[in-house]
Every structure is written in structure tokens, then in C-alpha cells.
Amino acid sequence: MTAIVEVDAVCRHFQRGGERIVALDAVSFRIDQPSVTAIAGPSGSGKSTLLAMLARFDQPDSGTVSVGGERLDRIAEAQLDQYRNRRLGFVFQQFNLVPSLTAQENVELALAMHKLPAAERRRRAAAALEQVEMGHRLHHAPAELSGGQQQRVAIARALVNQPSLVIADEPTGNLDGKTAQQLLELIARLQHEMATTFVIATHDQRVMDMAQRVIHLADGRLAA
Ligand SMILES: Nc1ncnc2c1ncn2[C@@H]1O[C@H](COP(=O)(O)OP(=O)(O)OP(=O)(O)O)[C@@H](O)[C@H]1O
């Protein structure tokens, strides 16, 4: 079976001044089924470095990363935007919406690569926002939305291209308890409906509790 994600013996170190920091140390795992997988571990354990590898924002010193059966080190530079845009969705702690654009326009941005007629772009963005229960806020700017609503818009943006993998970095980090819980219920529903895999770096125990799988990192290594 082709793994959705395959991380094989990945090592990554950084040099800071005279110090050698081992961010990832021979990390290996596979994700075979669409799921929510949490990457958990204390600050500095390598979670963000690992997510960066999945998007090929960064590359291992040694070892390999494959997504959907494709070795990421073999993707040519010129194809990287296409890989990220068509195969991946991103969700960030700070939402990262464009403040001057409406919710609908923010989601439309993710469709820019497709050269769709404007009306079709608008329709798809509106449908994605409906899916996250934001159909009543299409024309609101981010500043006119609550944190939880902004994160829903960000999830619509991440999903509008129907990616096989959504990479999320502390998506509940800026939300209060109840809003975080609602967002996690939404993610669980969307994961199921769309058969998309979510990989979520987190400190949040609620995310670990709802994930089908938790990968623990400590000092750059897989921990039990
Ligand atoms: N560009 C870099 N240059 C030097 N060191 C780095 C760099 N990026 C990460 N590191 C170091 O690598 C280690 C892993 O960092 P990483 O950001 O992956 O941790 P994290 O688990 O995501 O932490 P947090 O939960 O605080 O976001 C840390 O010790 C960090 O200081």
C-alpha cells in the first residue's frame, strides 16, 4: 500500500555559532490511512522542523520523506509550488489570513493557480466556507471575525483544493477551550468526510485525545 506519508531515517541538524543542534535524529514513521495524526512534544523537540520537511520548506541532511508515494527530494524546484498548492493545505496558529481581503477572497487565493473563471473560483470558495459553517460570513474581513471563525476560514482555505495532506502547526494555540474543542470537532468531521490526512503539531492535550495517532518527539527522536 502506498503510504500517505513516509518518513524514513530523517536527520536534520543546525549549526548555531559553535553549537550543533540536532533537531531530528533518525526519525521514521508511516501514515497509511487517512487520519488525524498529532505530532506532540515539548518546545524544541523538532515538531516544526518535521512539518517543514513534509512541505519541503526544509530538507533532511539524510533520510527521505515521501508524500503520496512521491519522494520529496526528487521534486524539481520549478514543481514545488505546484506540489504545495495542489497536494497540501496549511493551517497556522496565527491563522495567517490576508487582513485586507474578505473571508471568501482569502479562500479564493488558494485557487489562484488553477486559472478558473472568477465565478467558479467564487463558487468553490463559498462552498468551502459553507463546509466549515462560515457561509454567513463570506464578505467579512478577518478583523470582523472571532479567532475561531478566522481559523475556520483558514481551514476552508486549506481544504479548497482537496489536498491529500493538511499540515497544521498549533491550530488551537490561539483559541479558548470551548472554541478549540469546536474546531477539533470540525477537523474530525472534515477528515472523515474528505478522507484527508491531517498532521498536527501540538502541545494541546485535546488534540492528542482526538487524534487517531500520536507521534511523540523528544529531543528530535521518536519517544514512546
Ligand atoms: N533555523 C534554525 N537554526 C538553528 N536552530 C534551529 C533552527 N530551526 C530550529 N532550530 C532548533 O532545532 C530544535 C527543534 O526546533 P523546532 O522548531 O522544530 O521545535 P518545536 O518542537 O517545533 O518547538 P515549539 O513547540 O517551541 O515550536 C530547537 O532546538 C531549535 O532551536
From TrEMBL:
GO terms for cellular component: membrane protein complex; plasma membrane. Residues 5-224 form the ABC transporter domain. Keywords: Antibiotic resistance, ATP-binding, Cell membrane, Membrane, Nucleotide-binding, Transmembrane, Transmembrane helix, Transport. GO terms for molecular function: ATP binding; ATP hydrolysis activity; transmembrane transporter activity. It comes from the Bacteria. It holds the Pfam family ABC_tran. InterPro entries: AAA+_ATPase, ABC_transporter-like_ATP-bd, ABC_transporter-like_CS, ABC_transpr_LolD-like, MacB-like_ATP-bd, P-loop_NTPase. GO terms for biological process: response to antibiotic. Belongs to the ABC transporter superfamily. Macrolide exporter (TC 3.A.1.122) family. This is ABC transporter ATP-binding protein. It comes from Rugamonas fusca.
